[in-house]
Each structure stands twice: as C-alpha cells, then as structure tokens.
Write a structure and sequence with these properties.
heterodimer, A: alpha+beta, Elongation Factor Tu (Ef-tu), domain 3, 3 domains, 8 helices, 33% strand, B: alpha+beta, six-stranded antiparallel beta sheet
Chain lengths: 371, 127
C-alpha cells in the first residue's frame, strides 16, 4: 500500500479519522473506504441517507463568449442542449474514441460552465484542455479543484436532510439541475445528481466550509438516519445502478459506444470532438465487444475485476467491476463480452481461482429506485 | 480494540493456531476479521490436502475483495468447517470460536513455537 504521507488529502481528512473511518489510497488520495462497514452504509443510502466526501473530485470553471463552442468541440454530449442551471453527463475522448474521463458539465450562466472531473484524472484532463486552449480564443479556464470541497448526499431521505440543513428558502434543483444558495453566509452549489442510483444532491463549497458543513449535515440528518459513507459503499451502490467507474469499466482502450453510453454522445451535433470519426464508424458497423451486466445464478464467490468469462472452452469476455450485491444478495458484475454473447439471458461461466461458476447476462441496471 | 487470546499462536499474516498434541486448529484473528469486514464467502481446502507453512490454503471474501489465507503450519488437512460455506458471516461474529477454518495434522509441531505469541502479535498489529 502507498505511504499515506505521500497521498493527497481532502479538507475533511481529519474529520474522517475522528469519525473512525478506515482510510485507503484511491486515485492518489487518502480516502475513507468505510466508517461502520460497507453493507451498513450501503443500506443507509438505499433506505435513508448517506453522505460521502467527494472533495477529491476536480472542479474546472470554463467561461467566456466562446466557452460553449470550445466545450462542444471537446466533449461528446451536446452543449447546445444545456440551458442555464442544467447539467449533463458527458465524456472526454482521445483521438481513437477511447475514454479519457467521464464528467458532469453544468451551465452556471450563459457564458460560464462548471466541469466536475474524476480525482485521478484532474491533471490529465487539465493538460488536455490547456493544450486545446492554446488554439482557442475568448475562453477562460480555471482549475478550482484545490480550493473546492464537495459532499454527496444520497438516499430516499437525502432531500429532507438537505432541506433541514439549508432551510425553507433553499431552491431545490430539479433532476440534473444546479442551484446556488447560502448557508452560514457561505455560497453552496447544490446539484441534483449522484453516483448511487438514489435521489440526492451534491454540495460544492469552498474548502474552509467543508468541515462545519459536514458537521451540520450529520447533525441535521441524524434523526433521519443519515450516515457518513465511504468509497466502499459508493462502489457497491454505483455498481448496482450500473454507473460506470472510470479506470475499471471505462478506459482509453474502450469507446462510449462499447460501454453502452451512446446516449451521452451526440454524433449529430455540428461540432467535431476527438474520437468522433471512430464512433461514427462504430455506430454504422457495430462493435466487437460490449459492456454487459451479469449476475451469478447459483451462488458462489463474487465476481471481481479481471476475472474471465467463458462459453465452453472459449474465453468470451473479461470482468471490469464485480462485487456481492448488498441489496440483491448475489454476486453481480460488469464485463466486456463479445457482442454475440451480450444479449440478456445469455448463460456464461465465470472463472474463479480455476473453478467455473454459472452466470447470466442481465438487463441493466441491477437496481432501479422506485420513483 | 481487538481480542487476542493468550493461549493461541499467531502468524504475521493474521491466522491463529491452537495446538492439541499433533493437531492444529486454525482460524483468522479478530483484527483480521475487522479489517476484512462483512465476510460474504469462504473457500476452504480439501480434506487430505497437504500444505506447507506460509502457503495459500483458503480464501475469504469480503464485500470489497478476496483475501488469501495462509496456513500457519505444515501438515495434512483433516477437517474443514463447512458451516462457514453456509454462514460466512460467522467469521465476523466469532473468529476464535464458531469460525475456525480447518484442522490439520502437524508434520512439525515444534515449528508452531516459532509463531508469534499474543504479546508479539499485539505489537505486530500496533495494538
């Protein structure tokens, strides 16, 4: 394991230690993997509410009269569709159509955008953007990751908790929207999004506000069942909801079409973006492999990343994410498999430590909340 | 604070062994079960398997990951705790009792004395 002293720490690092969290390395950061236990925290988010420190994620502000055009030439989704106060899931690709990062873009003002990026990709994303900025005019770029902290409040009671904290005057955002409010005379951005399959909001604040905000949130949420949650539960929650994890399910060697994220790629928009040509070809002629969801059908050890999938003697796929599902009680996973075996209902075998375990390709997602 | 019974010997890889004559009873420590948390699957060796001290002999899976379990002693497996296949959570509940993993006939019973005693194990885990 990496030396914790070498790892980056969020403004809440000391709070996590006080709360008794177990801290591990994640994307170069020293982050809480769990407080009371992954299953306990997972259930809190599915049944009540959980709060996650997501301050390790990056926040870029992009502004100016040509910011929209710049972003449309950088990202896969159509920025023209974004009205002020709205957000969209989008991807940044390399020239081969492979995924550099998956991100959320918010339109804060007509000419100001907020891009939320993965922790491990802050440097790479910034380098990509800055290289393109050299050829762009009328675009301002600022990386505010270091001075920004963020909390993800998730679960069926998350909005109640947010309301209890932020008061009756809080302009609650609609799905995928972002609003600005004030708490303790401090500016808070609240975005109705998340990475758990539950309803909720992500709160963005200046880092010096993070500690009092989390303390107030835990106090306000305590009667509603709110628990601090770590990256362990975040991973099982997002896997049940079939939300991809960059570095596992997404990589520079896989395109969004292969990953089943075609809905977040606009091939019709006028702007060219890196990888567009490759994606157009894939759309026309199909892909060799697809990211599918699968489950164990007769018990056995849980799937893990890099396990192989077989049909008879033929190796037909590889697992990218896997875990025992705390909600469903059986092993679930995501895997790239050859397209002819990607249909739900296809029966395959998972190889675990030399033995074979029966699995079945299923429809995504494993878990969908009742709205 | 984790429990470390004085009558057991411990491997640095967190397995405990209890010796009765030439038979050893093996499990994982309270510290190890707490580190793993939420055990969901236990894979045990076959009865009759021969194992060397320090070799991988079983697998315990938590929600997060699969962890190798090493045999703290050399010998032949004589019995495994198949109850753990049905109730893997016993590893979290009773690591020194109901969640014993396997028994083995020790080929070198004296070597067990080279393992850590409770005080040394406590120091090893920073207790």
């Amino acid at each position: 394991m990496s030396d914790p002293a070498q790892l980056q720490k969020t403004a809440l690092h000391g709070v996590h230690q006080k709360l008794g969290a177990r801290l591990v390395e994640f994307g170069g950061w020293h982050m809480p993997v769990q407080y009371t236990g992954i299953v306990d925290e997972h259930k809190a988010v599915r049944e009540a509410a959980g709060v996650f420190d997501i301050s390790h994620m990056g926040e870029f502000f992009i502004g100016g009269p040509f910011a929209k055009d710049f972003l449309n030439g950088l990202l896969t989704n159509d920025v023209e569709k974004l009205s002020v106060g709205q957000g969209q899931y989008t991807l940044m690709l390399n020239d081969e159509g492979g995924v550099i990062d998956d991100l959320i873009l918010y339109r804060m003002k007509e000419e100001e955008f907020l891009l939320v990026v993965n922790a491990a990709k802050i440097e790479e994303d910034r380098a990509c953007i800055q290289a393109r900025l050299a050829q762009a005019e009328g675009v301002l770029f600022e990386d505010r990751s270091a001075q920004t902290s963020a909390l993800a409040l998730q679960g069926p009671r998350a909005l109640e908790v947010a309301r209890a904290l932020l008061g009756a005057g809080w302009p609650m955002p609609e799905h995928n929207q972002i609003t600005t409010c004030s708490w303790n005379c401090q500016r808070v951005l609240t975005a109705r999004t998340g990475y758990t399959g539950e309803d909720g909001v992500e709160l963005f604040v200046l880092s010096e506000v993070a500690e009092p905000l989390l303390a107030a949130l835990l106090e306000a949420g305590q009667p509603l069942g709110l628990k601090p949650c770590g990256l362990g539960a975040r991973d099982t929650l997002r896997l049940e909801a079939c939300l991809p994890l960059n570095g596992n399910d997404l990589s520079p060697l896989r395109t969004p079409i292969e990953a089943g994220l075609g809905a977040f790629v606009s091939l019709k928009k006028a702007a060219d973006f890196p990888g567009k040509e490759v994606l157009l070809k894939q759309k026309a002629s199909g892909v060799d492999e697809k990211l599918v969801a699968f489950r164990l059908t007769q018990g056995g050890p849980p799937p893990r990343a890099h396990y192989a999938l077989f049909l008879g003697e033929a190796r037909v796929g590889e697992v990218t994410s896997g875990a025992p599902s705390p909600t469903l009680g059986y092993g679930i996973g995501l895997a790239y498999v050859e397209t002819e075996f990607a249909e739900p209902g296809t029966k395959l075998e998972l190889e675990v430590r030399g033995a074979r375990v029966p699995v079945e390709v299923v429809k995504k997602p494993f878990y969908k909340r009742v709205k | 604070m984790s429990t470390i019974p004085a009558e057991l010997r411990y491997a640095p890889s967190h397995e405990w062994i209890k010796v009765e004559g030439t038979t050893g009873l093996v499990g994982i420590s309270d510290h190890a079960q707490a580190e793993l948390s939420d055990v969901v699957y236990v894979e045990l060796p076959k009865v009759g398997a021969k194992v060397n001290a320090g070799a991988v002999i079983a697998t315990i899976e938590s929600v997060k990951a699969a962890s190798d379990i090493y045999s703290p002693a050399s010998g032949e497996i004589t019995e495994v705790n198949s109850e753990l296949v049905k109730q893997p959570e016993l590893v979290n509940k009773d690591p020194y009792g109901a969640a014993w993993l396997f028994k083995l006939t020790l080929s070198a019973p004296d070597d067990v004395g080279k393992l850590l005693d409770a005080a040394a194990y406590k120091a090893a885990i920073g207790g």
